Amino acid sequence: MRPLDLRSDTVTRPSAEMRRAMAEAEVGDDVYGEDPTVQRLEARVAEMLGKEAALFTSSGTMANQLAIGLHCRPGDEVIAEAGSHCLNFESGAMAALWGVQARTVAGDRGLFDAEDVTRLVRPIADVYPRSRLLCVENTHNRGGGTVWPLDRYTRVVEAGRRAGLAVHLDGVRLFNAQVASGVPARRYAELADTVSICFSKGLGAPVGSALCGPRELIRQARVLRKRLGGGMRQVGILAAAALWALEHNIDRLVEDHRSARCLAEILAELPGVRCDVERVETNMVFAEFPEPASEACAKLASIGILANPEGSTPRMVRMVTHLDAPLEAIEAAAPKLRECWRH
Q: What is the pTM of this model?
């Protein structure tokens, strides 16, 4: 019996319909700019997010790092929340690739205020790095899938603008934010210079992300993508999956959010387990177990549930719902969880 895999929403497998779209995709050599399916995807994403152009990339990490490479030069500084994906989960890429350093905001579940941005912008002087880019993550992964309220996000972006910063929105789960808040992804995206989104998380495609922004910046991003080895050939096979996901899997994200809420309610009732149900805004559930997270994950695996230590505290475990972890599977796991943690 296949385990209930809650390690991430990246573990999804393409549906039969998505595979059919991939098999039937019209393709060409994208390095030559000749793949019509990629062109359709890039035009569709740009239109959805209100940007002039988009670039298909192999991963969200690549999309984020292309944005940093576009906006910054060696020695520049990026302002971002301390738990941001671009700082913690991209293998030190901003330093290794672009010679850029970070100046971090100690946020609350990934969120911070306009005053934090103003305070962290460096004075202009020869001895200081140049404050160049503000990165905002929505939803915030390490914050627990937190959604930025639009008014707070707007104030933060405006503070960055007043300080002369470019703004990049790490929106790999931006459609989760849209579904949870009712705020269109386009509304968040239009306030930023560049925005990344991911197709291979909750949207269920096997591979791929996109970077969106002004046409000239995206043209430059294409050069940087090639430099990083990200130029792909008949990649329309993958772009077809992303197109299918955009058409069919955005509205259904509400089901993942419902499953996460159900899971949180089950966990909150287990003896010794702490889980704040009200903090579950999208498809992520953080729970603090009575034993170390590695031991808790081993116990979960023994009853057919896969999860990962979250890492911020010794006993915190992260679980992520997705289209291959439907509500009925969460409900079916409840008796096993209660049995395993009944004492």
A: 0.96
